[in-house]
Protein: D-2-hydroxyacid dehydrogenase
Amino acid sequence: MPVSAGQDPISVAVLHGGETPPGLDGAVGDARLRLAATPDELATVLPGCEVLLTWDFTSDAVKQVWDATDTSALRWVHTASAGVDRVAFPALLGSGATLTNSRGVFDRPMAEFVLGAVIAFAKDTARSLALQRERTWRHRETENVAGTVATVVGSGPIGRAVAELLGAVGMRVRLVGRRAAEGVHAFDELPGLLPDTDYLVLAAPLTDDTRGMLHTGTIALLPERARVVNVGRGPLVVQDDLTGALATGRIAGAALDVFEVEPLPADSPLWTMENVLLSPHMSGDVVGWKDMLVALFADNLARFRDGRELRNVVDPERGYVSTGGNQ
Amino acid sequence: MPVSAGQDPISVAVLHGGETPPGLDGAVGDARLRLAATPDELATVLPGCEVLLTWDFTSDAVKQVWDATDTSALRWVHTASAGVDRVAFPALLGSGATLTNSRGVFDRPMAEFVLGAVIAFAKDTARSLALQRERTWRHRETENVAGTVATVVGSGPIGRAVAELLGAVGMRVRLVGRRAAEGVHAFDELPGLLPDTDYLVLAAPLTDDTRGMLHTGTIALLPERARVVNVGRGPLVVQDDLTGALATGRIAGAALDVFEVEPLPADSPLWTMENVLLSPHMSGDVVGWKDMLVALFADNLARFRDGRELRNVVDPERGYVSTGGNQ
Structure:
């Protein structure tokens, strides 16, 4: 999908979360950056901009200001995240602006994060740390990782990286995507895969099909020994249902990096559950991630300037990048 | 090394730690088990026994009672551990009794334990759990595992299993053994490998050569970012030296499953160090490990009874199983 542009300096609205993207200024050539940290600021800077970079992927500001703001100049929206759920709303998708994401930056780090959660459960790491605080020497038996069964929902680059890494350590892995393909189970096969699942990994995009996919009904199909690992998006899970299942021991544990509301409210019961490993939406954020995100955006901006095809164009129908291309 | 035996029931002294080996009675046929939990009890039961099983591999009782006890009937000593350091003392080795160990039972579980420690450091798991206890949402950047450098000391089955698993997740692994071999660095090459080591894994047997191998001098060769993982034996490390290096930040962290004195005394400063992951000598002990140990001993006992070659015979010169064979 070539997107041509004139030779005048390009105006780029940048929605950030208070911290301006490090190194962005030096990476975008003569483009004019128009920074915004709040919906009001975004509404002010967005008119006249051809490009919008949503650096703060947790913000709903774009959707909030869209209807009342002149976006007639906008031709490209890039999000500094793999998931596009904050910007892939109908009015934006229907505006003709091209949407791109940061696919590829997070794949391997997120896979390592998932493997870390799996081994932490198997080797009882949280309990070891708790006993360490109490200066208590208490031998326990732990679990094998090799030979256990992982069901990975999401057959995009992140899900594939997770499946590959879990397979490399000897787990039996089933990858579940939207449709069946070689090595990929169709989403409607998932219920049949849950009963012998030891680790259910959610690495799917948040779409109408996947929203709320893990609820009391699907949890009921999991064995009691099962653990859930969610590195996708919080709303893939009906959080109250999962919380209840963890509280009653219906399933054995959960490692949650994403939540329905982020930051997770301080009164959530998840904070204090012993069978929950909780982290603040950071599974993909290894040292250097911001530099990689800036480099990816800068490369796409050069393509935009030259009228070349952009990388990581999101399919407006599906809500994620639907073809191969760079990882 | 065939070990023949008569047709009379075999007498087996069993040194245990208070818990008799589960299922042992049913696994040894008509052998007579003579149980001992203390040095005094061992001194009482050992005379006349052809076989000694040291189920409690943390006890020094065999060495304590050896000189004053009649062991003239003893022809085979089997230890329910990979390390033989508690029984491979000169008087026993020189007695003509064959020494066997439990090589193979712990390899893969220990490798998974080491990988778990590596990922826990890279992904800052202990800090995530500490913040979780405080209900604090604090995003951090974590580290990649792939591409980091591991130096694994110990080229026996455990070290090899560790090296294989760390390699499978994309780490660059150097294996260090007693002597150079294909894919194995000689022990005297170790100083040259330490300066670019991210993770130093100790999985070596405790011998005169390896005792105290990690001390202030060798720690000084490690970069500040290095972490040490010890799943071998505590005395491989001069514990005070390591504790000091961890306290001053000379190195970044340590995951310690073994200690100079076990259980680790409650007043050890290691318990409360934030950069230490401490566990109670359990790295190889997955669910079912006792059954596997009993099965291995029972198989060897049948071989002993029939005069066939025993599995896992320890080389008295080296203090570990020196040839291939079953894993």
Q: What stands out?
A: The radius of gyration of chain A is 21 Å. Residues 289-306 of chain A form the longest helix (18 residues).
